[in-house]
Structure formats: structure tokens, C-alpha cells
Amino acid sequence: VSDIMAVHWSKLPLIIHKPVEEVKLMNASQHTGKYELTASIDNSFVMDESTRAAFLDALSGVATATWADDRLIVSASSGDLILKAHKLLSSFIHESATPIPIQLTWGLPDRSPEIVGIEFDLSFRGHGISKSWFFREYMRQSPLVRIGFVFIKRWSKATLLNHNKKGHFNSFAITILWLHFLLVRKLAIFVDPAPFIDRPTSSFSPAAKYLPLWEPHGDGKYNEGCLDTCKQVADTVYDFFRYYASEFDWDKGVATICRSDPTTLLKTDIEWTFNNEVRLGSPIYYRICIRDPLEQTINVARHVDGKKTGAPSIRPFFERAVQALEGDFGKLMQPLE
Question: By the 8 A CB rule, do 39 and 55 touch?
Fold first, then answer.
């Protein structure tokens, strides 16, 4: 269902997760609460009983595994455990003295962790790691934050708002816009960025546990109130579009998550004004301002100039989204050139 590859053309060390098939963000009640993974052996390879037993031992205490002919069926009660099982199997296969022709395959969408169907990239630049860990503190707060963000990112990609080469935004900017909005509406709790600025250090070794989009009960079944969450996400996404279409002041305001009251920061407060733009060499524009939470002297939207886009051409993305949700839904995920 998914693949991870290195991005060789990037200026920074980067890997990208490209799902073969983008998994639908289903209602949590559609998920079985069980997670499955299959390891299939090539028909030409004969595996002895001791190796089969070693596979089972490698998963002991993490997941349930049984052999069915040349297939190892693995199941677990949570996304975190099935991802650990995948990691254990991958390590076992790669560390084997004898090459084992085996393929790992995720189960159907209703039996897989949502992450296998979500596109994302990871930067191994120091600040990139710190920012990912910082954003995680927001994402762990509620399913609303996570589910809404995944949808907003998919929308931004589909409409080409999230497209650096066209002079628009990147995923980092979209993330800040989403969190800024949630802070304005008091739907997220402010996270002070200061403790994250100096990370990572040699002693920084976080143990990240998988966060499912939806909150399951202890028995693995999903919360029966998921329909209420669906409605809340829908209402919040609509309000997000409306906020940036008509309420946020693109000409004077700065989208920031650097302070608990994000509405109080203006461009003039930090001298991010037209007269201070750099137009030679590597241009820095302040037509639209989105403040980097950890490197706070950096405008994440510094490449957006008045010729390519600017506020007059950015706002229509949000205006059309509002119109789509009010009646012309088919246009919501269409590119806006």
C-alpha cells in the first residue's frame, strides 16, 4: 500500500512516503479496530521450520502471527503495535544470513493504520526534526486537529495552493495556517515553541508512539461518538476556509503560532513590510507573512511575491472552498490555476 524513498534532488536530506493508493479517510466506525499485515514468501523459496519459528519469535509479545502455507498472517490490536510488527519483520528479513524473498503487504484500509495511505515527507535537517516534534504536540491534542489537518493538506495539494513552484505555499506553511486558525478559535491549546528551539541534541531521543487519527477505546474499538467528531471536523474545516477567505487580514496580519493570542501580531510589529523586502539575489517578500515558530526571523511565505500570487491570488483558494461547501461541492478538490 505504501513506499518510502529518498529524495535525491532536494537540497536537504529528505525522504518521502508515497502511498501506492491514497486511503480514504473513512469514518472511524468503518474501521474494524483490528490491524493486519501479511508476509508472503516467493513460491521458489523453500523455508525450513526453524526459520518459520524464528519469524514467530520475532513478533512475540507484539502481535499475533500464524503461518498459512507460504503466508504469515500478522494481526494486532492497535496501529502502534502493527507498525512495530512491520519494523520487526523488516529488520528480521534484512538481518537474515540467507536472503529471504518475502513481501510485506498491509491489510485492507479498514484493517490498516491510516498512516500507510497518507503522503508525507521527513526532513533530517536539525530544525526540521525539531519542528516535526513541535507540531506533534499539537496533533496529539485531539482527533479534530489531526483529521482536519490531513484533509486540509490534501485539499491544498489538490487545488495547487500547496505548490512551491507556482509561487504558492508549501506543506509547512499550510500546517501553520491550520494551527493558527485553531488557536484563534480556541480549538487547540497553545504550545510554547521555546523548549523546541535548541533541539535536537545528542541527548534528544524521543520515543514517539503512533497517533491514530481517531481515538480508539482500550479494547481496540473506536469511539461510538465518532459521528459527532465527523460533524465537528466538517464544521471546523468550513470555518477554516471562511476565516482565511474573509476574516484574516492578509495585508496587515501575520499568521503565527508563536504566541498564545495569535491575532495580535502585525507585519509592522516585526518590520515585515514592503520597504524591507529583499528583491535581489535570494528575494524575501512580505506580501504574505507566515512566521516560522522556531526560526522566528523567517517568513515561511517569503517566496510569495506580488507578481505570482500575493494576497489577491491566495484568497480565492479559500473563497472557492467556501462556495464549494455551500453548494458546488464538486469544485472543492479541483486545481485553481
Answer: yes
Using the predicted structure, report yes or no on whether residue 167 has a pLDDT greater than 80.
no
Is residue 264 very low, low, confident or very high in pLDDT (cuts 50, 70, 90)?
confident
Helix (H) or strand (E) holding 83: helix 79-95
Residue type, 293: P
DSSP state of 186: T
- 97-153 pLDDT, tens digit each: 888 899 888 877 677 888 888 888 877 776 788 898 899 999 999 999 999 999 999
Closest CA to 287 of 272, 271, 268: 272
What gap in Å lies between CA 82 and CA 36, rounded to an integer? 7
Return phi, psi of residue 246, to 5°.
-140, -15
What's the rounded Cα separation, in Å, for the pair 185 and 173? 19
Asked if 133 contacts 206 with a C-beta cutoff of 8 angstroms, the reply is: yes
Give the residue among 251, 294, 243 at the shortest CA–CA distance from 272: 251
Considering just the CA atoms, what is the radius of gyration of the chain in Å? 23
Choose among 262, 258, 259: nearest CA to 243. Answer: 262
Residues 6 or more apart whose CB falls under 8 angstroms from that of 307 comprise none
Q: Please state, in angstroms and rounded to a whole number, the distance separating the CA atoms of residues 213 and 290.
A: 26
Instruction: Give me the torsion for CA of 31, 37, 42, 45, rounded to 10°.
Output: -150
